[in-house]
Amino acid sequence: MSANSSNGIRLSRRRFLQILAGTAGALVVGVRLAEASEPPLPPEWLGNHFHELGAYVRIDVEGNVLIGARDPDTGTGVATALPMIIADELDADWNRVNVVHLGLGVGAADNGQPQWSYGRQRGGTGDSIPAAWSDLRQAGALARWLLTQAAARRLGIAADRLRCEAGTVIAPDGRRVTYGSLVDDASKLDLPKQAPLPKSPERYTLIGKPVGDVNAHAIVTGQAKYAIDHHEAEALVAVLLHSPWQDGSLERIDTTPALAVKGVVKVMQLKPEPGQLPGHTVIAPAVAVLAENTWAALEGRDKLKLQWKPGAGAEASSGALEQQATSLLDGDTAPTTRVRDDGDVEKVGKHAARRFEASYYQPWLAHACPEPMNCLARIDKDRASLVLPTQAPQQAWAVVQRLTGLAPDQIEIRVPRVGGGYGRRLDHDYVAEAVMLAKAVQKPVRLLWTRDQDFANDWYRSACMHKISATIDGKRNLVTWNQRLASASALSGRGVPADRLWSSEVQPDQLPAGLVPNYRSDWYALESSLPRGPHRAMPHLSNAFAVESFVDEIAHQLREDPLKTRLRLIGEPRTIALKNGGVLDTDRLRNVLQLVADRIGWKNWLRSVNGLGIACWAMDGAYVAHAIETSLQGDKLGIERVVCAVDVGRVINPLGLEGQVAGATLDALSTALNLAITYKDGQIQQREWKDYPLGSMALLPNAVEVITVPDDGRPPTGASFLAMPTAAPALANSVFRVSAVRVRRLPLMKEFLRML
After folding, report:
1. Organism's domain of life (predicted)?
2. CA–CA separation, 297 vs 319, rounded Å?
């Protein structure tokens, strides 16, 4: 066994078992030499007495188990939930399991292309658990099979007569053999010709049980290391000053004062590479100051004398974009894309009993990750080693490989726990910057973005405007729904065909599609020079706010209970086939809605002095609803109670799910109450936390009551941002109600809530 300095440990001349995700989702099991394409392993992964049982599992002779978490944990709890899946299939003793954050697993195939050792590696996108559900159960089942086979040979009993429990193989006569005593024999066995079958659900002993976050102790005691905490000897610290305009250019610069600062080594210019997609290269022209320490780098940056020349977007403003959206939606302009068109909206609408209409504007949003962009990069002649916070290690690898030309297995990417992602770390402009700098100075570089640069150089969520009209028949049934959305696509310039740019902004199956017989959804493209990219809960966040706020406005004009309006819209229990695959189960949607209504005491909504608001949504096979109670003392808003119900199918870790639901709820409330990015003359106006104030403890509720629907055998769905879409409209509906009761300023409050 050979150590590779701080870069991890590589096995030498040992056969290992590797489990890979096949191109069609099948599990590919093979045996090959470690040198062929085994990724570097963390130093703690193998000691002198550990044996490998598959790509994710290591067990030592004392029965201690190491399980690798393949997806980056951005605070979503996947570093706990994913190993739980393996541990349950393995019948491991969870008290003896340690979890290791796996870096990128990449090797070289025979054709020189990358070969992913752990299959899909992607975090913070709400689909880690459903994507891993099959793969990781197979991984655990294989490790258990190997141990059982080794025990069968030792005990002289057929393997199918043995059972496993808490790290022990047990024979019918009561004899027990520990995993630790079997691992040496098990690691030498040939793989089965067919993958062993995973457990049946009734045999689960860990899945579905509440488990604390495996990193919780390290986090609360300050021992957790994020990428920004990593250092390397002789590494230079690099800080940046980007152009205030993404399409700007450096007109003149005097580096003399900066280079005079003690410790400053070099000042360099960085430019976006022509022809590269956004997120794959430098986000905007920048000047980098490299120094021996952070203080010198910042001092040097402050001493720079430079002037930027604006580009074509120099006169852009958020106000002008809002006017552009208003003009498009108020005029007769044809939509950029008709996303969905069911029935005949115009014909049926002409004969409807009543018509409703409303508009909703939502501002630009930044990601504002707690851990700003950073990257530690060492680029040598035949090897690249990086430590970085990313949601997509394979996409980060592609950036490094393009800039260095190194072979797949010459690039190592380590991903510690990530200090927030929210979609920002699906782009890797900061990685490109670090690699460019490290190559230029031929030394390790520790790139650190300051908060002002983080706010001013984001891939923002576009502002958007919804204009919705609907009609009802004589029985108060919604018979037409016409929703028009104007926004600047997050996919613009990213190599996506023009006729698919809408797909980051709206979904054809979003509610109330399928519930209203005559349904139309149109998207209008706004032109903007601001960089855009993926954002948490996008596109559900903005669409659910508009839809669920509008449903409440319809209920108000009909003078009826908003819950009754929704239940009539949802209709009788049935499944509705979705255009993008899957089904909408109206019974499950109705259930989460009724659960929060019952818990909040909705029967008193009309008589309550406080305001009660409600909202529901469905996405990717999961269902969510919120009910919120607010009070109004003068002009001071109080959020008294928040209840959220979720139906995510199979629940891996109830405690982790509760944390995700509560966290997403608070994030959505903070966003609705406080946050907006504005720009003037093409420049972002928010540069510090005081300009973009996240919700304080005093502003947000003391607790979020979470109701989890018991699973009924359905596969698990994602939940990292499931609770975001319905929190804001439930809040708005609640505030509208309390204002009607206590302040009697309905027109003013309705306009305010549309602008949240």
Report:
1. Bacteria
2. 36
pLDDT of the residue at 392? 97
CB 482 within 8 A of CB 338: no
pTM of the predicted protein model: 0.91
Name the amino acid, one letter, at 125. Answer: T
C-alpha to C-alpha distances, 569 to 204, 295, 511, 551, 577, nearest whole angstrom: 38, 60, 10, 9, 17
Kindly report the number of other CB atoms within 10 A of residue 410's CB atom. Answer: 18
Mean pLDDT of 378-388: 96
**pLDDT tens digits for range 153-184:** 999 999 999 999 999 999 999 999 999 999 88
Cis peptide bond upstream of 534, omega within 30: no
User: Token pair of 705, please?
Assistant: 């009551």
Q: How far apart are CA 649 and CA 655, in angstroms?
A: 15
Q: What is the mean pLDDT of residues 195-211?
A: 94
CA distance 364 to 532: 10
Kindly report, residue by residue over 111-133, the tens digit of the pLDDT: 989 999 888 899 999 999 999 99
Task: List the one residue out of 407, 384, 413 whose CA is nearest residue 111.
Answer: 407
Of the candidates 335, 616, 361, 342, the one whose C-alpha atom is nearest the C-alpha of residue 481 is 342
- What whole-number distance in Å separates Cα of residue 211 and Cα of residue 320? 50
Burial group, residue 389, by CB count within 10 angstroms (0-12, 13-18, 19+) = buried
Instruction: Kindly report the number of other CB atoms within 10 A of residue 327's CB atom.
Output: 12
| Kind plus residue range of the DSSP H or E element containing 565 | helix 562-570
* DSSP annotation string for 491-544: TTTTT--GGGGGGGT--TT-TTBTTBSEEEEEEEEPP--S-B---TTTTHHHHH
Say if CB 250 and CB 308 are below 8 A apart. yes
Query: If we measure between CA atoms, which residue out of 558, 554, 616, 614 comes closest to residue 358?
Result: 554
Q: What are residue 576's DSSP bridge partners?
A: 584
